[in-house]
Known about the structure:
Blueprint: H1 8-22, E1 27-28, E2 37-41, E3 49-53, H2 60-81, E4 88-92, H3 102-107, E5 112-116, H4 127-132, H5 136-139, H6 146-172, H7 178-196, H8 198-204, H9 209-212, H10 218-221, H11 229-250, H12 252-272, H13 284-300, H14 302-326, H15 332-349, H16 357-379
Parallel strand pairs: 3-4, 4-5
Antiparallel strand pairs: 1-2, 2-3
Amino acid sequence: MQEIVMTKTDEMVMKLLHYFITEEGYNPIILHGVNNEIWLENLNSDYKVIRIVSNYIHNDEQLHYDLAKANYVLRKIKVKTFSFTMPTLNLFVNMGENVSKMEEEASEFNHFSCVKIKTIDDIQKSPALLEIFPNIQKEVDYKEKGLELFIKLTTDINKKNEEEARKAEDVFSAKKPIVTYTFLIINLICFLLAHVSHSFLNGTVLVNKTYMNYEYYRLLTAAFLHYDILHLACNMYALYVLGPQLENFLGHIKYAFVYIMSAITGSLLSMAFLGDTTYGLGASGAIFGLLGSLLYFGYHYRVYLGNTLRSQIIPIIILNLGIGFMLTGIDNFAHIGGLIGGILTTIAVGIKYKSTTFEKVNGAIVLLIYIIFLGYIAFVGL
Length: 382
């Protein structure tokens, strides 16, 4: 059996890699053509990107070139992950003594920090590193050496990667969209009933505050009514395309809640601008809420869905809002109300494996304030 030999540099790289993956929740970034460095990302951390550089940096000029190259790669990552700023920590484990302007070189690039770590004792010399990762020195000071250390670190990293893969599979695995199909059927039934019975239509359509007469259920029932077969077909096709994906990601109950709350918030904002002789109906407010929810979900999972957000979801939202402003007969207020409502409701219910309790509580508070505000402008007026 071939013996595994680890140099001091290799050992330090493995220790740092083990710490950031297993203790701090960082994930490797796959970059083609990048050698002698490892990129890690955690978009919820103070340092969103960490580079562990094992390439020998022998002077300030080479350091400047290295940071310029990293900055170029980082710009591409920003675009993919929809990040305006991306604080990056560069850890150099093989830096020569001729490098004398590390801080000056790092200051030339926005949100770059550089730390030289050849030994564990070097960690103590970096207060900025210890401020963000106070346990790093203790966690990387392993008793195991050589092959025993290699086996321990690789085993732990593999377990962590397997756990992250399991979570991703749990979120993205296909599930039966029973709630979406239920909403499709309800919309179809309501369409038939409305065109058979005018009393059903008149009793469920959205009206302005003058004629509401405490019938607040109209805020929801109006979202299941449609003017004609073309109106129904367009909205149901959008629901058929978007619904199963989002129901997969959120789960049945959260998805249903997002749809209903988006319908209500869309109706509230629409109601605020209804004229005396007009009425509102249609599922477009709820569907825009699904777009908003998918936008928020995609932001949290933008490592997986970054390209989809940029090339599909955002253009669809902008295009449809633009059409709504240019054409008459389209209730863009319902679209905007539902879009914002969908985002806020998704923050409140949370994204699996991503949202914290603090974020969900804040989301619920903001959602409640949003509904109260819409209710005020709908029923009282500004």
